[in-house]
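thread: overnight batch results

M.L. [08:02]
morning all. the overnight job finished for the chain we discussed friday. pasting input first so we're all looking at the same thing
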Amino acid sequence: MPTRVEIVAYDPNWPQRYRDIAQDLRRILDALVIAVDHIGSTAVPGMAAKAVIDIDVTLRGLPDITAASALLVAAGYQARGNRYDDDVWAFMLQGVEQKRRVDLCPPDNETHRRRLVFRDHLRSHADTALAYAALKARLAEAYRYDGDRYTAEKTRFINAIVDREDRMTGDRSAMVQATVTCEIRYRLKPGSLAEFEAYAQTWMTLIERHGGTHHGYFVPREKPEGVGASFPGVGEDGAGDIAVALFTFADEAAYLRYRSDVAADPDGMAANALYADDPPFVSYERVFLQPLARRR
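M.L. [08:03]
and the structure it wrote out:
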């Protein structure tokens, strides 16, 4: 007899139940486990869902699937197979206080990655979460005894969100890699801090006038009392006469354009002339940087 698709109100106990189940799975699977993740609608605060805790278990590698499967079956889980040929093996445990579905997968599994992207999107976008909850309610009514159709109809919505997130992530990553960030580290001339501050104000104005984003100049201050090196023997406190400037341009073309334009800017020419013979620093060094793209 087909099982009814039944959506229930969010249960605030679901996160703790997930943690209890995750602890049990780590005990059962032991060293085979890399990560245990709460996925699905019960992982989204406030989201109505089927009363089943969905969990993905990432194993050390694909060869561990056989041993992990045997351990789960021995613990009472029913094997549901690899239905979609995506290296994800499903298991269900029923007849317990909290029904749970556990999927085993190897590292870097695409199905698992997409599940996390969708979960994280719902957690941080209340409007999408509301739309998804309304969709699930409609589908549960329309396909109340057809779980496969219910899932298939949801998948269109899920794929649209994940694909959009992937495009945005790709765009952000490309933008990050294109930027030009410059750090300039100055060794200050003794007694010249006030003069250096005037110099700094001029160049912050010029850089932003010509398309850059200036993150500021940073001048020396006393070290907080009692703070030591985090890695003794490797790190140590530096000199007390160092100032740092940090600014960013959108890409190399913008940076080169700035270099050309500021040389013809009357304020730029005046600043260079003012400090040409007697700058408020002994020396400086320049380093070009780019941000490290943040992983999910």
